[in-house]
Amino acid sequence: MLRMRPLIRFAPLTALVLAACAQGPTLEQRLSTYVNRTEGELVAELGVPVRTYDVEGRRFLQYEQRRTVAYSEPGYYRPWFSPWGPQMGYWPAPTTYAVVGCDITFALRQGRVESFSFRGQGCR
């Protein structure tokens, strides 16, 4: 006879591991929900665009996202001398900060979102 009791103890752990593997929708999937919406709906949800450009019956709305990320290079080992002779010491590299951005442009025709594009290192 198989006892189920011990397996139940691992259910929360299994759920946690599976949740950690789950990925949310991509940027492209999130932006595709705006296609065929009106300009008013777009501005109501995303706010006022940074730039607009009208040409040949089309209107382009550009949004910018900027965020600061911290990263660190690997540290290094360096010899140094003590009263007891040469030693090896580890020096961690300093934390470096960088601003990454994502520019998102929506193309509208007749007041409705027709397409979108994005570019930049911060697009995720």
Structure description:
The chain has 124 residues and is an alpha+beta fold. The protein has one domain (24-119). The chain has helices at 5-9, 11-21, 27-31, 39-46, and strands spanning 51-55, 58-72, 76-82, 85-91, 95-109, 112-119. It has a 4-stranded antiparallel β-sheet. It has a two-stranded antiparallel sheet with strand order 3-4. Strand 5 and strand 6 form a beta hairpin. The longest helix is centred in the N-terminal third of the chain and has 11 residues, at 11-21. The chain is rod-shaped, with a radius of gyration of 26 Å. The two termini are 50 Å apart.
Order of helices and strands: HHHHEEEEEE
Largest β sheet strand count, sense and barrel closure: 4 strands, antiparallel
Broad structural category: alpha+beta
**Mean residue pLDDT:** 84
**Per the principal axes of the C-alpha atoms, what is the gross shape?**
rod-shaped
Biggest β-sheet: strands ordered side by side in the sheet = 1-2-5-6
